[in-house]
Every structure is written in structure tokens, then in C-alpha cells.
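Pasting two entries for a bug report.
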Amino acid sequence: DSVRVNDRICREILGWEPPMHVQYEMFLDRGGRKISKSAGNVFTPQVWYRYGSPQSLNLLIFKRFVGTKSGSVEDIQPHMDELDYIEDVYFGKQKVKNEMEREKLRGLYQYCWIMKPPEEPSVHVPYNLMINLAKVAPKGLEAEFIREKLDVYGYLRQGDSGLDNRIEYAMNWIGDFGVAEVQRIELTSEESSAIRKIALALGSAEDEDRYQGAVFDVAKEEGMRPGNLFRILYKILLGSPQGPRFGPYVAAVGKQSVIEELQKSSN
């Protein structure tokens, strides 16, 4: 109603045509409430930029979405990881067979960079891996610790462009929220059984090789492909189907925290 009233004021009192009206997109918070200054649940770009890149926020804004979008800090992790995937598509590192889908993603990547994309891709690390490393990093040596572990895991083979920003995002997140919540995945009864057995085996394992070997032992016992089992583990622990070598990762973040995550996901 206020729009129509203001239009009449412009025409009938002020004597000029009202400005053109445009549709805008409604964002809700995680609880489904309208984001509103009067309601006290404002979520600003500055908050997002503390934990994620400007391009990941652009992705949230520009990508097509069925239904109403939510805007909260919980959306940062999946959009950071999704931006990495789209960047891989843009630079041809990730193959997409459907040409229309591929070009759509390439165009979306350009919009994320406001039509000025970089000439080379940045380093890609699952957001939750950064969070977990930041959590266990020695105080005062966080950046060195995270960089060293990522180098061991093989994430820095193609360079470290953008890594300093990712470390800063992770440290800000840990300082403000603690560990990020990974979305729970649905497991079959067979997969749940295998995950519980891995958690049990980790309890008696004492080094990286035994942590790694526990997965192969359980895969053989359960008649599962080790690669599939590793993908499930990474989805549980990192929210991504890929990750660092399992044994060194468990040693870095602490086997007890890994055991607790596996037990929680398989119950």
C-alpha cells in the first residue's frame, strides 16, 4: 500500500513520475523469520566477510534458487566449498558433460567476481578442514601449523594463492563460534555398521598407519570398496567427499574428536 500511496504523492503533489519499482529477493534467517532491522536479526555483508570471501556471498546472491533463500553464518561454509567447485569448472579442472550446465556455472563464476575473474584458481581446502586445523593449532603459531599440515596433505602442490585469507576466516570462526557443524548425512545400516567399527578400531590404534589401516580392515570385513568408505568418512568429518589422507588427519585433529564424530553420525 505504501508504494501506491508514494506513487500518488509523486504524481499528484510533487508533479513527477515515481521511480521505477523493482522486485527484490526476500532472505530469511535459519529459523524462517524475515531478516529485519526492527526484529533485531540483521545479517550484514560485513559479518559474512569475517568468515567467508566476498565471492562466496555473491554466489549466494546470484545463483538461482527454488524458494526463499536463507542468509546466516551457517550458509558460509557450503558456499565457500561450492565456489571452489565452480572455480574448478571454470578453469576446466572439474569436468561437466552437459554443455549448458557447464556454461551456466562458468557464467555464474564470472558474476561471483563481478565479471573480472582471476587468471588462475586459488588454493582449495574444505572449509571444515580449515576449521578443524585452526581448532587444534598451537596458540600463536596457527598460520604456520595450518600451512604445514596442508602442505603435508598435498593441498599446496599447485600453490597457495588465497590461503592467508582462508586461514583468517577459519581463525575468526573458531574464535567466535568454535567448531563448524557439518550437515548430518544419511547412512545405510551397512554404512553405519562400518563407521562404528572404524570408530572402535581407532580407539586401540596408536599411529597414523594404524588409523589408515583401520579403514581398509573394516572395508574388507564388511565387503565394501575402501574408496567408498573413505568418501563417507570425509562427508561425515569435513562435509566434502574428498579430504586429506585419513591417518595423518586423525593424528592432526586428535583421534578422540574423530571417534566422537563417527559415533554421533552412526547412531
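Entry 2 (this is the one that rendered wrong in the viewer):
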Amino acid sequence: MLSVEETKFSTLIDKLTATLDSLRKSYNNAESAGPTAVRAKQQSLSSLQALQRGVAELTTLIAPKDAITLMTGGFIETKALVSAVELGVAEALGEAELSTAELAIVVGADQGKLRQVMSLLANRCIFHQRGDAFSNNAVSALLREDDPMSMKSLVGHWGTDTYRAALSLPEGLLIENALKSPWELQVGESFYKWVHEPVNAASSTKVNNAMQSFNGSIQCDLVTGFDWSSLGDTATLVDVGGGTGAIDLALLKQWPKLHVELQDLPDVIEQAKAEWSKSCPDLCSRASFVVQDFFQPQLCIHKHYFIKQCLHNWGDDDCLRILGNLRKSISCDGRLYAAEFVMTPDASAIKHIIDVNMLALVNSLQRTEKAFVDLFQKAGFRVITVHQSTGAISLIEAVPS
């Protein structure tokens, strides 16, 4: 008779095998086109997340001490990655393979120390190692400044700012610090105040670039994963706190009858105007740029509001102020669309990391569907559906209640 541990092991192996088979099938189908490809991509991501959880569970079953050691030592991996980014290793390698000695000369690092860090990263499948030589792979290429999907700024932001906040995470969990973020405990002021101070302009740029990098991965899912033509031929979508409007550009290109109104703070709007005029002057006729603080009342009544990944930056009270202003200025037949990560019982590790990231920096969180429903209800909205895109982002659709 099998022991409890043997039964768990056997069950887990069977589950992993089935998940691998499912991943192989869905990955192959994702190469096709149309609805089949969309469903296949969703299934591929779901299978991958299940596989990651299964491998983690297998590690805890076979080598529980390794599981603790790997998680505790995660900070070493973070700083190793930050080191590679700050040294410009990915750019130095380019399309070539360089020996450690050659690479060390180019980036100005100690050869022996660089080899240790690069070997660790290669072990984690970041960079390719062949003997004493290294080259870029599909993952490390994302650390290059010139890569269209570059994550260099995100690594810099998380690996410095969020890392700094995380140092006070244990203290930040105490009941007496409930109203303060770990960042505030570490730095002495809120992250939003700190990042907008002139002396921290470089960090502000890094944060903005990091968010653009992160949003780039979900932009396609939002643009193509929802039928925006359902808003009507003459619809104007008001993007609240929309930054420089990267997703609005993509929406206008994909949906030729749609118009947008981009709202944000004065300096952001000026930047948006300059970028749009330079990169896509032909689309400016279908866009308007409005200075608007979402904590202040809207100037006009609108039918379609869109707010993307803003609510997770704020606690419930602040979110109610934001949503309350939209509720007062939405037409009775209007719609509010909020793009957010929605936490589920089987949420991926990435979602959980982002969740605690928000806790560390701004004392906020990634909410569950129920939490969103309750929040919207308090603000005078009724959630009618939550659209799941092909990726991790969801689109919450609500109407005035």
C-alpha cells in the first residue's frame, strides 16, 4: 500500500503529465488564427501557470528545504539581474557571443565576479552560457534598451524602488502601521510624493518607462480581446488617467470608427500631444487631450469611460473618490470599463507578486472580482460582466446603478 507521500507524489506526477499534454496541444493551436487561436492562447497560459504551480508543489514535496532556500535567496537573483541591467550586459553582447574576459572589458566589471553573476542568471535561463562564454537568448534580449518589448526599466524599478520598499514589509504588516505603506516606513513619505520631486526625476522617468513596458504586454490583449465597435460608430472613449495614451493609439489603429479623449495631469498631457504629433499625426483628428485630475470632478458628461490599471494603485477610499467622480458625470445609459488584474483562487505567481508589490509601494492591492463588485457598488455602479482577455488582464464592465 502506498504511503500518503507516495500517493501525493504519484497524483502530482500524473497531473503534471496531463498538464504538459494540454500545453502541447494548446500551444500548437495558438499558431492558427481566429477564435480558436484566442482560446488556445488562454489555455496555454492556464496550462503554463498550472505547470509552474505543480513544479513548485513537487519541490516542496521532494525537497522542502530547497523550496525555502530558493525563495529566501530570491533577493540575490533580483540584484544579479539589476546588476546585469545597470552594467548594460545585454547591449554589450548584442548578437554576439563573448567570453567572460571580453565581456568584462566591455562593461567594466571584474572578470571573476562577473562570471559568478552571469552563471547564476544563465542557470535561471536568462542569457545563454557555453563554457566560459555568454550570449543573449530570448529572455535576456528583453533587457536591451532597443528591444520593442524591453523590460529594462521594469527591472530597474522593481529591483531598486520596490526592493527598497520590501525591506520594510515585515514592519509594514503590523497593525500599528496599517495606514502606512512599507515604502513610507522606509523613506518617510509616500511613494507618489517622492517620485514627483524634482530631485527624483530620473526615478520618475524609470517608473513611467517601466509602466509602459509592463502595459505593452497587455495592450494587445485589451485592444483585440474586446469588441470595441460595440460602443457604436460615433463613440468616444474617455481614457481616465491614461498616461500618454499608448493603448489609445492602438485602439484607434484597430478600430477605425472609434474616437478617444485622453485625460491626465498637465505635464503628461503635454508629453502626449508631442508624442502623438510626432509619431501619428493622422490619428490626432480622432483624439482630444484634456487636463483632468481624476480626484477632481469631471467637466462634462460622458457615455463611455475607460480606466486602465489605476485602481490597483489606490486604497478603497481613494478609489471611491475616483469612481464617485465618474459616477456623477456618466450618462444614464453609459458604460464604465476598468482594465485590471483580477485575483482568483488560482491566480498566477506573477499576479501575487504584483499584489504584494502594490502593498509595499502604496499600501494597495490587486482585488478579487467580489472586491471590485463591492467597490463599484459603493460608488454607484453595477458590474454587469468581467471580460477575460487572452492574457492576464480583465476588463470590468459596469453601468450606473
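Dev reply: Rendering is fixed now. As a check, the viewer should reflect this: The mean pLDDT is 92.
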